[in-house]
Amino acid sequence: MITPAFTCTCCGHEHDGLPFAYAMAAPVYWSPQLAENPDNVLGDEYCVIDNEHHFVRGRIVLPVRDAGEDFEWGVWVSLSKANFDRMAEVFDDPARVQEPPYFGWLSTVLPGYEPTTLNLKTNLHTQEIGVRPLIELEPTDHPLAVEQREGITLARVQEFAEMALHQ
Q1: DSSP structure class, residue 19
Q2: DSSP 83-139
Q3: Regarding beta strands 134-137 and 121-125, do their DSSP bridges make them parallel or antiparallel, or are they unpaired?
Q4: How many domains does the chain have?
Q5: Residue range 107-135, pLDDT digits in tens
Q6: Does residue 35 belong to any structural domain of this protein?
Q7: 3-62 pLDDT, tens digit each
Q8: Tell me, what's a Pfam family for it (predicted)?
Q9: CA 134 remoteness from chain centre
Q10: Of the listed ranges 4-8, 83-87, 103-107, the one predicted with least confidence
Q11: Is residue 36 in a domain?
Q12: 3-state secondary structure (DSSP) of residue 75
């Protein structure tokens, strides 16, 4: 969903609308030089570094209390090799939605959060085929975990848009 235009508090200009999703292209540990080594792979849905570190893409959903749609962060989570292999094994199986959640570590630094979001504990829930996994944060007092539990406002969505526009 993209809302009507909004007036930016940073620059005073009117911008085209509030995006309700942002995605990170790679785990924070990825760098372009890693692509030179065949043991390193960055795909659309997974990443492997040195055949040792395994990451999958997922979604952190934040309810927006004063809107009819949720906000989503597209993030990366590290998994153990066993969990990564299991996810790959059931990737095309419709029954994968019955898999127990996989423990992981958030491998994305999201803007607008202190302390950092890097290495927050997560549970990754597989979804139906064609839908990226849902990431559930450990219920701590970290601001991102609180926002996942309690929701955010359109004003917070605008803060994210302003950060993206004026990094």
Answers
A1: B
A2: HHHHHHHTTT-GGGGGSPPEEEEE----TT-SS--TT-EEEEE--STTSPPEEEE-S
A3: antiparallel
A4: 1
A5: 999 999 999 999 999 999 999 999 999 99
A6: yes
A7: 667 776 777 777 787 899 999 999 999 999 999 999 999 999 999 999 999 999 999 999
A8: DUF2199
A9: 9
A10: 4-8
A11: yes
A12: strand
Q: Which residue has the tokens 């829930």?
A: 125
Q: What is the pLDDT of residue 13?
A: 73
Where do we find the tokens 């526009």?
Answer: 165
Residue 84 · residue 53 · CB < 8 Å: no
Question: Quick check: is 108 in a domain?
Answer: yes
Is the model more confident about 68 or about 9?
68
Q: Token digits for 152?
A: 């955010």
Please give the structure tokens belonging to residue 51: 């055949």
The domain containing residue 82 runs over which residues? 19-140
Summarize the confidence of residues 69-82 as an average pLDDT. Answer: 98
At CA 59, angle to CA 55 and CA 62, rounded to 5? 145
Q: Is residue 127 part of a domain?
A: yes
Which helix H or strand E contains 79, and what residues bound it?
strand 71-79
First and final CA of the chain: distance in angstroms?
22
Query: d(Cα 29, Cα 79) in Å, to the nearest integer?
Result: 14
Report CA 142 to chain centroid distance, whole Å: 16
